[in-house]
Amino acid sequence: MVDQKYFFTQFRYDALQRANEKQKLMLDSEKTKKTSLNLYERQYLGTVGAIALDKNGNLAAATSTGGMTNKMTGRIGNSPIIGSGTYADNASAAVYCTGTGDIYIRVNAAHEVSSIYK
Ligand code: ASP
């Protein structure tokens, strides 16, 4: 166990202040320029998603959120919800979702997309 101060960073605090000033919920990737996917330039930092197909035809999907700033306390994004932000079905497709995930949760987006291919 550590004190809450352990998790404080000036960078994250400043991002929260900017989002509060705009009274806006922001994707963490919004505050960076999206002009390049070169990881070494650190310009686009958002969701990390992966899908895989093994030699036996098994599909897998994984999603790690890029995060949201100024979100409601206790909000859970779509990324960890199977069917919403992440879904895989050997009979159809593997899917991961990025962006503001509230609507993905309401419509169970990853599962719905996968269902189209069945
Ligand atoms: N989809 C995520 C959420 O709504 C944000 C992201 O990483 O794209 O929490």
Explain this structure.
The longest helix has 12 residues, at about 10-20. The protein is elongated. The protein has three helices and six strands, in the order αββββββαα. The model has no long low-confidence stretch (mean pLDDT about 85). The strands form three sheets. The protein has a two-stranded antiparallel ribbon with strand order 1-4. Strands 2-3 form a two-stranded antiparallel ribbon. About 20% of the residues lie in helices and about 20% in strands. With about 120 residues, the chain is α+β, with helices and mostly antiparallel strands. The structure holds aspartic acid.
Range of strand content: 15-25%
**What is the tally of helical segments?**
3
Q: What is the arithmetic mean of pLDDT?
A: 87
Element-by-element helix/strand order: HEEEEEEHH
Shape: elongated
The strand count comes to 6
Bound molecules: aspartic acid
Poorly predicted runs: none
Strand line-up of the largest beta sheet: 1-4
Straight-line distance between termini: 47 Å
Largest sheet: 2 strands, antiparallel
* Helical proportion, percent range: 10-25%
> What is the alpha-carbon Rg in Å?
17 Å
- Provide the structure class: alpha+beta
Outline of this structure?
By secondary structure, this protein is of the alpha+beta class. It is built from 3 helices and 6 strands, in the order H-E-E-E-E-E-E-H-H. Helix content is 22%, strand content 19%.
Notable traits:
binds aspartic acid, 3 helices, alpha+beta
Question: What's the topology here?
Answer:
Blueprint: H1 10-21, E1 26-27, E2 48-53, E3 59-64, E4 68-69, E5 86-88, E6 94-96, H2 102-107, H3 109-116
Antiparallel strand pairs: 1-4, 2-3, 5-6
This protein binds aspartic acid.
